[in-house]
Amino acid sequence: MNTIVILLLAFPVVFFLSLLFEGIDRKVHARMQKRIGPPIIQPFYDFIKLFNKERIVPVTASSGIFTAVPIIAATASILGAAIPLASLILETGVGGDLILVLYLLVMSSVMVMVGGSSSGNPYGAIGFSRKMTMLIAYEVPMLISIVSVSLNCNSLAYYNVVSAQIMAKLLLAFTRPSMAVAAVTFLLCIPAAADAVPFDISEAKTEIIHGSLVEYGGPYLALIKLAKAASNFALTLLAATLFFYLPALFDGYVSLGLGAVFSSLVIALIFWLLTITVPRTIFARLKIGQAFKFYWLIPLPLSILSMALSTLGL
Amino acid sequence: MKMLMTDKSDGTKEIQMDYTRLRVPFGPVHPALKEPISLRITARKEEILDVDIMLGHVHRGIEALAENRNLVQALYLVERICGICSHSHTTCFIQALEEIGEIKPSERALYLRTLIFELERMHSHLFLLGIMAYEVGFDTLFMFTWHVRENVLDLFEEITGNRVHHSMNTTGGVRWDLPPHIVGKVSASMTSIEKSVKYIYDVFQDKTVEKRLYGVGELNYSEARELCVVGPTARGSGVNMDVRRDYPYAAYGELKKGFSVVVRESADAYARTEVRILELFESINIIRTILDELPNGPISTEESVLKLMRIIPEGETVSMVEAPRGELLYFVKTNGKEGLWRLKVRTPTIPNVLGLKPMLIGCEIADIPVTVASIDPCMACANRITLVDPDKGEAKVTDVSTLRRRGRKQ
Amino acid sequence: MRVTTRSRIKSPWLFHLNTGSCAGCDIEIVAALTPRYDVERLGCILVGSPRHADVLLVTGPVTRQMLPRFIRVYEQVPEPKVVVAVGTCAASGSPFIGSQMIEGPMDKIIPVDVYVVGCPPRPEAIVRGVVTAVKSKFG
Predict the structure, then answer these.
(1) C36 touches chain B (CB under 8 A)
(2) Chain B contact present for A287, CB below 8 A
């Protein structure tokens, strides 16, 4: 009973936190460009405004898929972020929920991709093909690094990995070389999963007019933006708690309870700023061939190395 | 998908569907374009196979309107052909009128015209560098470049009163003088802009930007000569041409030793960008020389503009200047009664936009905004073409490919 | 209802449409995004697709070739929307009045909410026009 209540409460908390983090990201991005930037609660204004606009479905779109995609994407993303958060608060887990979370996050990206192609716009079709290429490029190293983590901790449950860090009183990234390599790989895959420059190729504004999002407006766009923000939040929360669970270093009240959750959120925000905001500000966008080559030359060998090292017990 | 129709030997037509080709419309309304141009692109996956260029969306009939205006009104009309290079258009027009009417502006007026000309070149090149950064997704460099550009616009406002459309020229001279305290401000601005441009040059050699600009949109020397491209687009492909050095006008005759023409051989988008960055340094040197050597004297003639307008006789002439985008050519024919028989404007973007087709074929879709921005298109300048058919009594706006076909037939 | 009104005023998304202008107004619109004027602090973003926009910023006298595209883009913007005519060309058509290639000033074709005159208007004037339009239409 308690579990279900906490899981249901996690939905609005995830909604609030992911939009808040997005606001902080936009503010920091503007300050780095010598501008003032919008107020931190700007994404809330955007969301409410978009929800109250007219609903337009283009004539060339297959309206069933077109209207269903935003709801599925948003639900999948929020669920994917709520499960780790609820797990942290309740301090329990179910076996296999790590794979479930990753599946939900991939599903939300695939849904947005499919929605773009169902709109009947040639730019949506180009966005579809680009996103498919990017999915092959970044999902493989990410999944291999998670598998190597679970090989190391002998469990596929999210909370078991976290509690392994609490027992060892060490951050997972510093326990063994294989874990350090896995942490680096996971962090390198986050900008592509978050569609941040230099890897926002599937949603390039100046090349293909927002790619998959070109025909979405009004409430559909609000839900897709929420899906993206929640997916970013889930990824950074996973990076912060799986590899760098800071409360594990301290005894006492910080190790358990809401203080631990709060400090993990702060670390997640710092990772959001480091892996999404900073690359967005200081790099130019790459072409699809160049991004694909980057992901197959650096993160993929690193992830295979981490898996090899963890099977060897290092 | 594309339909290919071929004629078979027995007279019937055969239709094949090619499902690998995708027709992508680029423009006229597109976030990468600030001005409308229509490119119909046929692509397979990400590779471009064919490009069809269609102009005409900004055609406002200026040459026809100019025939109904007197010479002073025509000057203000001509200024609004383009907002970015407006001073180039007015200088070219005024030079043509002064040649027909044999009016000699004073030395100080010529130097001031050149000063505003070089400031406009600087603002236009900084504008383009920002747009190039914006097209490759590098928002921060776009914000930085345009922040530097605001210094140049401040100088315009101090000297002439407006940021865009300065209206500095008048028949026989210029309208605003340069008091000594503004000379100091201009020098100080030049120092700070030079430092910022050095930094921008550094950032344009960053790894991610380099990957987007190297080898993109190549136009080799022979193609550049054949299509007669002008300006930095030609100088990036190795063609050594510059109207300021070859046919000097305004004060460029005396300043010849003060600047050099920048030419690069690699012929890709990066070469064209580098030519513009180095031209910024040259412009800063020219402005410093002008401020040092500014002669004293009046800035315009003693007669009023209306009196000068009346003494301009019937005549025709061709006048050329080096606008920021290349060679700008005017043919002016006055009718001796304060009006114009004919005004013909050939702007630099017209030949440059023809270069888009050899540049884009073989590139990826991601290269289209970068290539289109690297020729620095000013569509508002380029839409001057009307074909009138006297037999049928109709006038239609045509596109450049039709014109080329007609030009080859005759 | 008040929350919706406040959100609409605090986050106007702009779409810029050039119907044949000389590009003077367009560069002042883009200059409004740069650090000196920074409209993003008011919540304005320049979006790429008309379906995402609330405010349609139109420059230029409407030329004959841009007329069908202009009407089509206007219809693609979802309600509630605001139309702002930027520049003297868009407001009245001058200095191109009398040309046969101009389909007349904008308000002959679509309803306009705010006119921002100037050749070109300063970025501050454009920002003020957008804010006035949004406050009066949505507030």
Answers:
(1) yes
(2) yes
Residue A312, CA distances (Å) to A182, A183, A300 in order: 15, 18, 19
pLDDT of residue B302: 83
Using a CB–CB cutoff of 8 Å, tell me whether A141 touches chain B: no
Give the tens place of pLDDT for each residue, C79-96.
899 999 999 989 988 888
Name the one residue in this structure whose structure tokens are 């929307």: C81
Task: Tell me if B208 and A284 make a contact (CB, 8 A cut-off).
Answer: yes
Q: Please name which of B377, B352, B384, B323 lies closest in space to residue B90, comparing C-alpha atoms.
A: B323
Low-confidence ranges of chain A (pLDDT < 50): none
Rounded Cα distance between A275 and B48, Å, is 33
Nearest one of B52, B88, B122 to B368, comparing CA atoms: B52
Which ipTM score applies to this complex? 0.91
Domain boundaries along the sequence of chain A = 2-311
pLDDT of residue A252: 57
- Predicted local confidence at residue B31, as pLDDT: 80
Q: How far is A122 from chain B (nearest CA, A)?
A: 6
Q: Is B204 on the interface with A (CB under 8 A)?
A: no
Task: Mutation target for A interface from B199, B212, B360, B368: give the one with most A CBs within 10 A.
Answer: B212
> For residue C87, what are its two tokens?
């520049």
pLDDT 10s digits, C91-119: 988 888 888 888 878 888 999 999 999 98
CA A43 to chain centroid:
17
Residues of C in contact with A48 (CB under 8 A): 3-4, 7
Residue C138 token pair: 């949505």
- Find the domain containing C118 and state its range: 2-6+13-138
Q: Any idea what the CATH number is for the domain that residue C104 is in?
A: 3.40.50.12280
Residues 6+ apart with CB under 8 A from B26: B38, B39, B40, B41, B368
Q: Please tell me if residue B137 touches chain A, with a CB cutoff of 8 Å.
A: yes
Q: What is the pLDDT of residue B394?
A: 43
CA distance C96 to chain A (A): 31
pLDDT of residue A63: 85
Contacts of C33 in chain B (CB under 8 A): 143
Tally A–B CB contacts below 8 A.
78
pLDDT of amino acid B48: 84
Question: What CA–CA distance (Å, rounded) separates B127 from B245?
Answer: 24
> By the 8 A CB rule, do C118 and C59 touch?
no
Q: Which residues pair with C55 in a beta bridge?
A: C14, C82
Q: Give CA–CA dist B40/B25, Å, rounded.
A: 5
Which residue positions in chain B have pLDDT lower than 50? 386-404, 406-410
Backbone angle region of B112, left / alpha / beta, with phi > 0 → left and psi within -120 to 50 → alpha: alpha
DSSP assigned state of A275: I
Q: Which residue of C has its CA nearest to B128?
A: C27
Structural domains of chain B in order of their starting residue, each with its CATH number? 64-350 (1.10.645.10)
Pairing outcome for strands B394-396 and B387-389: antiparallel
